[in-house]
């Protein structure tokens, strides 16, 4: 039975904010080839209540969440950063629910930030808005100029703040370069009229700054951490939060990318355990491994479905027999959906929240050292490279040993990939691009090999099921043979790739 629950809509908002001086005059847009006329809309009365955690975690990430009445787009609005001048706005109608309770659909979008902390009103902002629609030569609006008279207050401070603010927002579909140029031309008219660029990204940011007794100002640049690996981990933790949102929206390839970031963090932490005060059996490392494993279920299904779709398309019609596409491609899509839902379940758990808490605490802490007062030892490329060389030596021995099974040989090659991956991430963090590139080549090569191993195992399993159902299994054999070719090609190239890494690492 279909649900009557309203679905959230998403919009891209491209705008700039300005602070008009006391002597500012109404801007003129005459003479611009992109503007044919200006139409004034009726004055709007807007009343918005903004929500955040007690520590203002959303504001710290430049995110605003509000419930607004009045105006043509009244409702719940969640605004997320999406680049310079751009934000993604997620909207829900007001509904009949508790106006002080944030809808779960919106809370879930930012759950990696708010976690299990409460969301409550942090400000009320009332705006009297005068709107001018800027009409283009085609007769359609291309931009909107808003002249706002703002009154704001916070629950903790009854003193009402008032100010005047101008906004320019693009309307309609324009190419990015064209839109940026138009916004700049319009902004110049506001500067000519006596405005300056606003010193805040949102009205809420201004309210919270003034409530704390601070003048709104651009966020100062933080002093970079002296340890390059520490800096890299901090950046990756921020990236993890971004990919978390993409996974919740079921964006293409997002599960894969979130898994990659999770594994990067774990590799770098393992490469520099002393600096982070960790050990091999740290709960944080174990939780990252567990998360990567959960995400891997959906990732593998998505990769296999795409791989089989392309492979079947490339086969002559006479080689495609039976409902092979339904089993391999559509079945993969169904497994992806199941894996994605399992990932979401994990990402809504207290266990996941504590992992994120732990990662944030780790990057915020000062570097530790085994020796009191001493600087922590930087990660060693020599140690990481040594682990690759050791894994390669074992794989070479396994390839020559008749008593070693094919599965064991595949696993030996997979270990080279895992060691090369850790070397790549460490080298990249330390700025050794040559070693990082050579390690990446090995990782990619053996990634194709491992995907072939997983694919062939899956093909055998599906062929057994198809055979039991009385279906023709010929195509499964054809695809199996092609996957075996991929593995052989990777194995033929690995020795040369290892030799190039050896030279890049200065080994001999």
UniProtKB/TrEMBL annotation:
Quote the biased-composition stretches of kind Polar residues, using this chain's numbering: 23-36
SMART domains linked to this entry? CHAD, CYTH
Domain CHAD, residue spans: 222-503
Give the Basic and acidic residues compositional bias ranges: 1-19
Q: Where is the CYTH domain?
A: 11-214
Superkingdom of this protein's organism: Bacteria
Q: Which Gene3D superfamilies match?
A: CHAD domain (1.40.20.10), Hypothetical Protein Pfu-838710-001 (2.40.320.10)
- For the region Disordered, give the residue spans: 1-40, 367-388
Pfam families found in the cross-reference section: CHAD, CYTH
UniProt name for this protein: CHAD domain-containing protein
According to the entry, what is the taxonomic lineage of the organism? Bacteria, Bacillati, Actinomycetota, Actinomycetes, Mycobacteriales
